[in-house]
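Regression report. Comparing outputs from two consecutive submissions.

Submission 1:
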Amino acid sequence: MLGHSLGGVNAYQLAARRPELVRAVVVEDAPADVPPHPDAGSWTAPRRFPSLQALREQVDDPYLLESAFEDDEGWGFRFDPARLERSRHLLTGDHWADWLAGDHPVLLLHGRESTRLATAHAREMARRRPETRLVEFPGAGHTIHDDDPEGFAVAVTSFLAEPR
């Protein structure tokens, strides 16, 4: 099971709660104790925009901009902003019990420049959970797969190639 950010939390939660479905877990930049998202509750932009430029003036998060698209109603996102806000709210909290559950091998990938997972927290996660390998990516942020796609691929491929 592989997941990034919210998907990373979902991945280790699935492994904890349904261990028979999982052989190994790859978690990309997802903490065990999730603070409120820095942008939580701040979505004030409209759902549709007359141009891509207008959209970019309201939303400067490159990760969210990847889902921008144009149709007959103008420019918008492939997600519902209200649901994004709800998801961020529900993700907030202490997930240590799920992180520490189970004995699956885990690859924890951490971008050293991440604003979502502090290096000290990533190291604590690896220290506290047996069968966890931490790989840190200097110069990468929250989206390691974008910031260092080759390093990401090497880390994941080598981890998955190990006998289980």
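Submission 2:
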Amino acid sequence: MMRDAQDEQALTPEQIEALMSYGRQFSLQTGDLLFDERSVVDSFYIVLEGEVEISRLDGAEEIPIGNHGPGEFTGGLVMLTGRTSIHRARAATPGRILEIDSETFRRLPVEVPDVADMLISGLARRMRYTQRAYRQQEKFAALGKLSAGLTHELNNPAAAARRASEELGGAILEAQLSAIGHDERFSATEREALVALQRETAAGNADLLDPLSLGDAEDELADWLEDHGCEDSWDLAPALAEAGVDKDRLEAMAEAFSDDSLACGLEWLAGTLDLVGLAGEIETSAGRISELVGAMKEYTYMDRAAVGEVDVISGLKNTLTILGPRLKNVSLSQEYEKSLPRIPGRGGELNQVWTNLLDNAIDAVDGRGSITVRTYAEGARVVVEVADDGPGIPRAAQVHVFEPFYTTKDIGDGTGLGLAIVRRIVTDHGGEIFVQSEPGETCFTVRLPRDTRQNGG
């Protein structure tokens, strides 16, 4: 298990004491900037008291990356490279800082080698981690752009295929009915009986059968067809059974036919049902593509304002649709409170929260256990719970799961969106996230306000 990268770089009180004479101390109040992305950092900063938050700008949005507490340091990489910072450091709480200028810092390897070795090795680890994290971030950004472009490209042909398949079924039926109206093999009474049974099946009143019952129905129909002179009985029976035609209906229809024309009539009926059924399969498949495209657009909130009214249940359902392939062998329970109020927020970000929590739950049950998604209103908040029956999170790890960089996976595994980012998104929306876990039951609970003004948002 990887430890938090920041914990590995913390200075001991003895090491800090050895450095005190090399720098100057100053105080920060909450919100004070230590440096930002416009600064040329020429000093090394050690946090003596309080907490400093590191963030970066993504467009106009400030995205927290992590926090540095007592004994931790920042500014070293920028100071050594002489470049402008790509991050900003801001006091998250009132605190005290030890500043060591760059020229003095370069004396440390000679004068306090033990402490300098620790600082330099820590900077090297941070640089390696940062490089790997940026490469991974670039991959996800490229994938996001590709997904957005693909969604747009798929939308029009998928909708066109669905419309065409809907019309195809009707066109096939009209062509078949027109053809039988001129088929001299059948009398007028026989044609009426065939058309009547065909229209009855097209009404869609047949009861849906499970695979075992459908197989039994096909066997029974095949035997009946064979007894009545149909040579291709085993080819005809599946289409008839799928349409809900049973032996009693065939018996009633057969009364209108002569022995010579019955087999031909049944072949026409089965062929028509088969063609209409194939058109229906195309329509269903095209509809599934449209559903996935729609879910992707909803999931990413494409073509929408970033902040607005968010339907939490819709977001969860769209996320489950996107994760559908990973949920094939999972027993999924969805418990949504009716008339759940919408909440103000950024739908795309909240969908990332649901994705991360569900993806972690799927990993926890190894793709084969049970997952429960539950929503309900609780006073002025909307609550979302994602629970699984996996092995659980060790008690010692539970207090760290929301810390930046703390993970049980290598970089590149999972969704690439850590629980630290999940907590950041939730808190940015004025909400809270908790975890309760024991072997066989882990539940992440997210509480989001129905009105952010109640939380200062």
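Expected: both submissions complete independently.
Actual: both completed, but the second showed a warning that disappeared on reload.
Relevant detail on submission 2: Confidence is low (pLDDT under 50) at residues 1-8.
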